[in-house]
């Protein structure tokens, strides 16, 4: 856990809960394209923020990337999520 106030009472990440669609040219995510250039080809972007944690979900038809970074733009985690994993998380959890 990154910070106690970043997770709700059900153990769900508050930043993930707050994901909202943003434009690819949004200034808060431009630095990520330098570090994770693969997401430049993705079509949809969602950003969630809480306290010092930011979550970017870059999505295309076959899956996406989940990128966690702090307010200083330091990337904490990058995880590729494929379509099967996404479906599994929606259907079996």
Low-confidence stretches: none
End-to-end separation in angstroms reads 20 Å
| Extended strand count | 5
Largest sheet: 5 strands, antiparallel
What does the average pLDDT come to?
A: 83
Query: What Rg, in angstroms, do the CA atoms define?
Result: 13 Å
Category from helices, strands and their pairing: alpha+beta
Strand fraction equals 35-45%
Envelope shape: globular
Order of SSEs: HEHEEEEH
Residues in helices, as a percent range: 10-25%
**Number of helices, where a helix is a run of at least 4 consecutive DSSP H or I residues:** 3
Strand line-up of the largest beta sheet: 1-2-3-4-5
How would you summarize the topology of this molecule?
Layout: H1 14-17, E1 20-22, H2 30-35, E2 44-50, E3 53-60, E4 63-70, E5 75-82, H3 83-92
């Amino acid at each position: 856990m990154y910070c106690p106030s970043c997770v709700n009472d059900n153990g769900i990440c508050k930043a993930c809960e707050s994901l909202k669609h943003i434009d690819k040219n949004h200034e808060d995510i431009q630095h990520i394209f330098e570090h994770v250039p693969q997401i430049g080809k993705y079509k949809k972007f969602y950003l969630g923020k809480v306290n010092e944690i930011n979550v970017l979900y870059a999505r295309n038809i076959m899956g996406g990337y989940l990128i966690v970074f702090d307010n200083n733009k330091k990337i904490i985690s990058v995880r590729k999520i494929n379509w099967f994993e996404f479906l599994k998380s929606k259907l079996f959890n």
